[in-house]
Amino acid sequence: MVEQTEQGLSDQYARASPWPIPLVLGIVVSEIGIVFDGLLPLAVGGLLLLAGSVVGILRESGFAETLYRPAAGIAAVFGAAGAGLYVGTAATARGLAFGGTAVVVAAAAVALFLYETGRL
Amino acid sequence: MATSSLVLTVLMGVLLVAVAAALARLEDWRSYTPLSDVGGALGERTDHGHEEKPGGIVRWFTTVDHKDIGILYGAYGTLAFAWGGLAVLLMRTELAAPATDVIGPALYNGLLTSHGITMLFLFGTPMIAAFGNYFIPLLIGADDMAFPRINAIAFWLLPPGALLIWSGFMIPSIATAQTSWTMYTPLSIEMASPAVDMMLLGLHLTGVSATMGAINFIATIFTERGDDVGWPSLDIFSWTMLTQSGLILFSFPLLGSALVMLLLDRNFGTTFFTVSGGDPILWQHLFWFFGHPEVYILVLPPMGLVSLILPKFSGRKLFGFKFVVYSTLAIGVLSFGVWAHHMFTTGIDPRLRASFMAVSLAIAIPSAVKVFNWITTMWNGKLRLTAPMLFCIGFVQNFIIGGVTGVFLAAVPVDLILHDTYYVVGHFHFIVYGAIGFALFAGTYYWFPMFTNRMYQKRLAHIHFWTALVGSNLTFLAMLWLGYGGMPRRYATYLPQFLTAHQIATAGAFLMGVSTLFWLFNMVVSWREGPRVESGDPWNLEQTDQFTKDWSWYDQQRESPVPAVPDGGEPEDDQAAD
Q: Where are its TM segments located (chain A) (predicted)?
C-alpha cells in the first residue's frame, strides 16, 4: 500500500485519468480568447493549458513514450498557425498569441528533452 | 484596456497554477519519465493498475469508465431537461393570454432559443449518449468503450458548452441570444449581443463533443465486440447507435464549419452569409444539411430502445428484426437527401422542391416498416404493461401522429400553407417529446434495476406515464389545431381567436411538467431507498428466451465474490438489509 500511495492517480487506478478536464478547459479558454477581441491573455493561457494537457494525456495513455516529442510537435503546429495568421490575415495579435505560446512550448520541449534524456 | 489585460493575465496565471497544482496532487509526474531504462520503467508501471476507480468526488472528475461517464451524461441531461422545461413553462405561461402579461417579447425570444437548443443539443443528444455509454459495451460484451479518455473528454466538453449557450441569461449586462435554434442569417449576423457569439462557441463545443462520442461508438461497435457477438447477432440498440454515429460523423463537422463561418461573419468581417456580398440562403442549406440528419440522430437510438424493450414485455422476439435494421440504415441514408424540405417557401427552384419532396415522402416507408414491426411484435403477444412497456406503446402512438403530420408537411402544396405555423411545432414536438422523450423514459425504467440494484415505485411510474401521455397529446394536438387556424410560430402574443387552443396547450404543458416531477422524485427516492432487486433477471426475460448480454453481465456482477456496488451509488454495507 505504501508503494501505491506514492504512485500517481492513473498508476493506481485502471479507470481514472486526471487529464480530460484540464484538456477541455484548455480548449474552451483558448477558443474564447481567440474569438473575442481583447482577451489575448486568455488565448495564451488556454493554449498553454491545451498544449500541456495534450502532452500529458498522450504520455499517460502510452500514445507517446516521451514528453518532449509531442511538446515539440505542438510547438511546431502552434508556430505554423501563428505565422499563418500573422502573415496571411489582419489578425496579427491572435497570430502573436499563437506564436508566443509556440515559443514557450518549444522552450518547454527543450527542457523536457534535456530532462528526459538525463542531460539535466 | 491595459488594466483589464493585466487582470486577465493574472487570472490566467492563477488558473494555470491551480490546474498544475491539482494535477501534481493527483498524478505522479515522475512516473511518466522513462529516464534511462525505458523498457523497464514501462514494464513496471503496468503492474500497478489493479483498482478500478478512486473514491469520493475525485472518482467523478477523473473517471474514464463507461458506466460512470454514462451516469454523468444522464445527470447532465437531466439538468439540461430541467432548464429547457422551465424555459418552456415560462413561455407557456405567457401564452395563456393573448397580450404580453408575464414576460416581454425579448425574454420570450431568448427562452424560445434556449429551449430549442437546450432540448436538442444539451438534453437529447447527451441523454442518448448516456444510454449508449452505459449499455452498448454491456450489450456487445466489451470491457469499455474503445477510447475511454476521449469518452471523458467528450463528456467534459458539454458543461462549458452549456454555460456558454446559457450565458445570455447568466450575465445581466448582455442581451440573451434571440436567434431561435436555427440561427437564420442575416438576423444572427446582425444581432449585436456577445451572447450570440458565446452561444455559437458553446454549440461548437457540443458539436465537437458529439463527434468525439460518435467516433468512439463506431470504433467500439466495430472493434470491441465480444467473440460471440457477430454482426448478425448485434442487438438492435447497437445498430441504431452505429447508424446514428455515422450520421453524426457526416453532419456535425458541417455544423461546426458553418458555425465558424457565422462567427467569422459576425466578428471578422467575412461575408459568407451577409445580404450584400454573401447569401443568407446558404446558411439555411448548410444548417439543414446538418439539421435534418440531426432529427434522425435524435430519433434513431430511441427507436432502437423501443425495438429492444418492447419485445421484452410482449413475450415475443422483435418481428422482422432484419427489416428493422434495414429500415434504420435506409433512414440514415435518406436523411441526407431531404434537407431542403425546410426551405420550400424560400423561393428555391421548383424542380429542386419536387425532388426533395419525393425523398422526404420516401422516408415514410422505412418509418412505417418500423411501426408495423412494433405493432406485429405486440400482436397476439403476451403483453405485460410495465412502465417501460407503457412508454414504448406511448412512443408508437405519438410517433404515428408525429410521423403522419410530417408526411403532410413533406408535400410542397401543404407545406406552403402550413410552413412557420404551430402545425410544424405540433408535428415535431410529437416526435421529440412524444417519441424520443418517451423512449428515453422507457430506458430509465427498464434499466433502473441494473444501475441502482433497486426497483422503482410502480404506481408513481404509471402516474408519470399517464400524465405525460395526456399532457403531451393535449399540448401538441392543440398546436396542430392552432396551425390549421393559421397561428404563426415564435410569437409571444396572438389574436384572441386562438385563446382556447393556447390555453389547452398551456394546461397540457403544465401537466407534462408535473409528470416529470413524478419521474424525478421516483428516480431519486427509489435510487436511495427502493426495494432491492432479488435476482439478476428482474423482468423474467429468461422465460421468453430474451435474456440479453447486459442482463447476464448484471447477473454475474451480483454473483461475483465482491458484492455488487451500484454503479454511481455509494458502496452499500447493508446487503442483507431490507
A: 39-58, 70-89, 95-115
Nearest-Cα distance to chain A for B200, in Å, is 11
| DSSP secondary structure of A10-50 | HHHBTTB-S-HHHHHHHHHHHHHHHHSTT-HHHHHHHHHHH
* Interchain pair B12, A31: CB under 8 A: no
Determine, yes or no, domain membership for B416.
Answer: no
All 3 cell numbers of residue A14? 485502471
In a domain, B200, yes or no: yes
pLDDT tens-digit map of B170-217 = 999 999 999 999 999 999 999 999 999 999 999 999 999 999 999 999
Q: Is residue B208 part of a domain?
A: yes
Contacts of A7 in chain B (CB under 8 A): 28, 31, 48
> Is there a contact between B33 and A67 if contact means CB atoms under 8 Å apart?
yes
Cβ contact (<8 Å) for A11 and B49? yes
pLDDT at A15 over 50: yes
Q: Looking at the partner chain, which of B5, B63, B149 has a beta carbon nearest the beta carbon of A61?
A: B149
Q: From residue B364, how far is each of B32, B162, B263, B400 by CA, in Å?
A: 56, 34, 36, 10
Task: Please give, rounded to a whole number of angstroms, the shortest distance from the CA of B528 to a CA of chain A.
Answer: 25
Identify the CATH number of the domain in which residue B225 sits. 1.20.210.10
DSSP conformation class of A63: S
- Condensed to tens digits (0 to 9), the pLDDT of residues A57-115 reads 999 888 898 999 999 999 999 999 999 999 998 889 999 999 999 999 999 999 999 99
ipTM: 0.92
> Which residue among A45, A52, A91 sits closest to B15, beta carbon to beta carbon?
A45
Cα(B300)–Cα(B402) distance, rounded to whole angstroms? 14
Residue-number span of the structural domain to which B193 is assigned: 64-314
Q: B192: distance to nearest CA of chain A, Å? A: 13
Question: Residue B33's pLDDT is what?
Answer: 56
Quickly state the pLDDT bin for B397 (edges 50, 70, 90).
very high
